[in-house]
Amino acid sequence: MKWQGRRQSSNVNDARGRGFTGGRKVAAGGGFGLIIALVVFLLTGNPGVLTGGLDNQNIIVPSGSQQQAQYEPSQREQQLFEYAGVVLADIEDTWNTLLPKEGKQYVEPELTIYSGMVQSGCGTADSGVGPFYCPRDHSIYLDLSFYDTLIERYGAKQGDFSMAYVIAHEAGHHVQTILGVTQQLDELRQQAAAGRLSQEEFNQYSVRFELQADYLAGVVARYMAEKGYLEEGDLEEALSAAAAVGDDHIQKKMQGYADPDTFNHGTSAQRQRWFMEGYKAGDLSGWDTFSNPI
Hints:
Layout: E1 12-15, E2 18-20, E3 24-26, H1 31-40, H2 47-50, E4 59-61, E5 66-68, H3 75-98, E6 110-114, E7 117-120, E8 123-126, E9 132-134, E10 139-143, H4 146-153, H5 161-178, H6 181-193, H7 199-226, H8 234-244, H9 247-255, H10 268-281
Parallel strand pairs: 1-6, 6-10
Antiparallel strand pairs: 2-5, 3-4, 7-8, 9-10
Helix pairs in contact: 3-5, 3-7, 5-7, 5-8, 6-7, 7-10, 8-10
């Protein structure tokens, strides 16, 4: 992606080097299934986990104080940091253009880039949860080390545009919050918690919610393409990242088999398909993953 020398968003918060001293890791029951759930949390932005508090996952509970340490990023990491700022600026331009056509104002989210551990409006989390969006403070959280995780552990194709997909997906959850979709999913989650909806049924809604965020990431990619920012291979990098975080791919890698009843993000093929649906449309005309076959 052509990004150097371009505008960086002013909504990037550099929280690298900040952390908690004396923290302790808490595992909240569930054994191996919980570990899989945590891995599947990658790229979630799923307020289903966050709204109920991150205490439903393996999280860091601070027993000490937050501490600012001197942090010196490598040249490569600093490039990723600046790249993320340009991507966020493109996301802002995309939705500041499109959402008014839907009668909605785009309130720009903040992107907090941290290292190791972060305090969000949804709780305290370490980098093990992957990138996420918190609807309570309308912020995206990202540890840049996820770039290496995505490529080295999950097999995504190397290239900077995989991170653009990640950030645009999380920003897609912010768009869903603005348009009221997040709140509707929360109501379904409450029904599941009350036993009026099975976990398997709720997971199906969660998959559609996540695929919708993939669609919205594709819309952003289309905006970038129309502005002439994309380079050869960028779309392939995004599709490779989408495949790498598919439920089936992650589960096969972690446990040797896939269990469709536990999917809550969608398969690799579904995630790729809906990203490309958004890219082809370039707007919200085809974003209804809840009514259409997935």
